[in-house]
Design goal:
Helices cover about 85% and strands about 0% of the residues. The protein is an all-alpha fold and about 110 residues long. The protein has one domain: F1FO ATP Synthase (Up-down Bundle), CATH 1.20.20. The model has no long low-confidence stretch (mean pLDDT about 80).
């Protein structure tokens, strides 16, 4: 139940962001396509940050649990953990980059 509630809230936030970016009121020549491009940009940001945040939470929990079970493994766990967090953050940054590239076409 908790997973479906979190998924529903994330989907609602994603859709609300799309509605906010869907129309800018400038009356561009692209018509409905500009609204769909803005919607695609908001989906790219929403899914990129949602995936990165959930991955970072799971990675942090697993790393801390491993260190708690064996404190001597801290040095062995820390470097791959930080590297994994950097890759996950890169995923979120790529979502923002794709959104800016898409919004540049509007």
């Amino acid at each position: 139940m908790k997973i479906s509630k979190n998924f529903g809230l994330a989907l609602l936030a994603l859709l609300c962001g799309g509605i906010a970016l869907a129309e800018d009121g400038s009356g561009s020549t692209y018509g409905a396509a500009s609204g769909l491009i803005a919607l695609a940009a908001s989906i790219a940001v929403g899914l990129g940050t949602f995936g990165a945040a959930s991955g970072q939470g799971k990675a942090t929990a697993a790393a801390l649990e491993g260190i708690a079970r064996n404190p001597n493994s801290r040095a062995d766990v820390f470097t791959p953990f930080i590297l994994g967090l950097a890759f996950m953050e890169f995923q979120a940054i790529m979502g923002f980059l794709i959104a800016f590239l898409l919004l540049n076409k509007v």
